[in-house]
Amino acid sequence: MRASEKLASEQLASEKLASEQLKKPNANSRSNMGRIFYVILVVVGFLLISAASQDLSAIQREDATALSEYDELRELFYMTTEFSGANSIYTTADSRPEERAESRGADQSRAGADIPGPVQHDPFAGLSELNPDFIGWIAIDGTGIDYPVVRGRDNSYYLSATFTGSSNPAGSIFMDHNLERGFDAPLCLLYGHNMRNGSMFAPLNQYLDHAFMEEHPDVYIITTEGVLLVYRVFDARRTDMWDTTYDIDLMVSSFTAVTGYTPGDASRFLLLSTCTPSADRSERMLVYAALVG
Asked: Is residue 176 part of a domain?
């Protein structure tokens, strides 16, 4: 082989080797980039899962805090008041034990059970001292609805404040603040949240089931004046937050249009309002009840 050909051959081999060496780092680089991208995905996924877990834990803590508060309020209420919606019983704890036992009969509820504690002349004094906005107590047998009712200065505060004023998504059961006559008004509107854990007014959504309505027809309210009001549920429907029912000036006419009843001094009605499980955050659930006792 001539010297020139040998030199050309060696040069070609050298260039080929250099090219192969250049290719190897590129392949390694792509492999490294793939590993880095995978690690980033894993880290991001972990952070998202961690954040979601923390949010869920925070929600569970808030729910537990609200449940605990309302359990304590029930203890305070039933410590000085015997109230069984199933038997329409309402007596104060300072009545004689034998009278209380006789009035309860065979069908006892948690509200009618003997709960040891101090006797107060005014069974609502403790709750009124805790919150001057306290106006009564609502209970519907078999639903878990068993809460104090308040009326604030507006319709916003108690959306995120519990009975004791703690900030909590559970809020309170509250009356429309425009109803200055309270439960003496011919048409009362109460609000409560539809909580994920089934508390507050969540059970109201079940009133779309006629069988459920027949099994849980009565709504019991004790006012701070000691008056027991019994309402009978007769209708339920889904609507939205812009329904004229929520406009006090139009509420009576809207109520009449839907139910055919005209609220007046001789007939009093109760509307219970909550959200629905729907993804539509503007959707609302309304339950209609008429005073029967």
From this structure: yes
Helices (H), 187-244: 210-215
- Are 244 and 161 spatial neighbours (Cβ–Cβ below 8 Å)? no
Residue 127 CA to residue 72 CA, distance in Å, equals: 11
| Buried residues in 8-28 as b, exposed as e (16+ CB within 10 A) | eeeeeeeeeeeeeeeeeeeee
207-210-212 Cα angle (round to 5): 60
pLDDT in tens, 117-152: 333 446 688 899 999 999 999 999 999 999 999 999
User: Using an 8 Å Cβ cutoff, are 270 and 254 in contact?
Assistant: no
**Is residue 9 a part of any domain in this protein?**
no
- From the CB of residue 242, how many other CB atoms can be counted at a distance below 10 Å? 10
Instruction: Return the closest-CA partner of residue 268 out of 246, 245, 293, 290.
Output: 290
Q: Is residue 51 part of a domain?
A: no
**Structural domain span for residue 68:** 57-291
13-59: pLDDT as tens digits: 566 655 555 555 555 566 667 677 676 776 667 666 666 555 556 66
What is the reported pTM?
A: 0.71
189 sits in which H/E element: strand 187-191
Q: What is the CATH number of the domain that holds 219?
A: 2.40.260.10
Contact 192, 173 (CB under 8 A): yes
Contact 216, 143 (CB under 8 A): yes
